[in-house]
Amino acid sequence: MREYLLTLCVTAAVTYLLTGPVRKFAIAVGAMPEIRARDVHREPTPRLGGIAMFGGLCAGLLVAAHLTELRKVFELSNEPRALLSGAGLIWLLGVLDDKWGVDALVKLGGQMIAAGVMVLQGLTILWIPVPGMGTVSLTPMQGTLLTVALVVITINAVNFVDGLDGLASGMVCIAAAAFFMYAYRIWFGYGLESAAPATLFAAILMGMCLGFLPHNMHPARIFMGDSGSMLIGLVLAAGAISITGQVDPDAMKLFAGSERAAVHATVPVYIPLLLPLTVIAVPIADLILAIVRRTWRGQSPFAADRGHLHHRLLEIGHSHSRAVWIMYFWSALIAFGAVAFSVNSTSMWIVLAIVALSGVGLVLLLLPRFTPRAPRWAEAFVPPRYRRSARAAKAAAESAPVPAGLHGSTAIGDRSRFTQPTKIDA
Fold this sequence. Notes:
Elements: H1 2-29, H2 50-64, H3 71-76, H4 79-99, H5 104-120, E1 127-130, E2 134-137, H6 140-161, H7 167-190, H8 196-216, H9 225-246, H10 259-265, H11 267-274, H12 281-296, H13 309-315, H14 320-343, H15 348-365, H16 388-399, H17 416-419
Antiparallel strand pairs: 1-2
Helix pairs in contact: 1-2, 1-8, 2-4, 2-8, 2-9, 4-5, 4-9, 5-6, 6-9, 6-12, 7-8, 7-9, 7-14, 8-9, 11-14, 14-15
């Protein structure tokens, strides 16, 4: 565990330290696109944050390759090299898109090529556990198609959810933390060396996101861009492919019965990572809804709009920060709930806790629909928007007429000075 923590900290530190110079570089080369209709931010913000994240990835792999225990991952498996190759291609494609813009079909082709490169180097799904059938071995063609599809879906799911400051990096960090807990349990709990690469990938992914988050939280000073969102999506998919298609369920020896009975009994363990729909359930749901919505309107599935889940949260009245934290909450609930269920699928307490937390999440979603009123004695401990006196004063100020002689001045009714930007001569 100490070596994983060291790798995570080095990755986070390198990513954090590189993000500042990368921001200056992005401004210098003009990687600051104009504000689009679907954008939430109102000031041009530099992109290319993926450059710093890729630097953190390289640093994490380099440090892990020189540690005593993690060195075995590089000696016994070619998967770290496969990840680095695919990540390099997808990162380069993202950098080109952030600076000059790349057609959606070209990006799709690049994503498939990056996934194919990883397959050629051994990072592929070899078999899948199917309920009632046992372990189903895949042909090379089936494994390749399934691996490429999983990589492309995960990359685009993360890319689609990257719409608010800190949203994509935070959600992927939560997913990586849940993934790390699962993979670490498989490796050290059952002694399966084939789960070691996935555990390493999850630790490095957490470091990449944690190092970038301080620069990307609202108000963001830099965006990760497609160079970052596609990169972390690929790393997350690589970990899921590694542990899902490489770890043999029979090697866990949980059950002494037949192979079919063993796999059927271990379904709660493997279903959460068969296709990583649970650790990134919210981005996947956003992706599916976006495709259905755009296709229904006769648009291209890759046509941008303001119909994503985070846009809906803003439309119903949530603030930027609250919308992000709500998405974090649901991501954590689904991801860690799936991991807890895989550990003990028969525990009723886990089910009840998930149901209770889901109720809390629904209340958070409905907060803008009602205005909670704090009692008088608690007004000193709650934000001003929940105080009766503050709301009454605000309503009175907004409804008060403006004297004729004060138009254009700094009277309460004149809000132009808050909405008009001040022009400063150079």
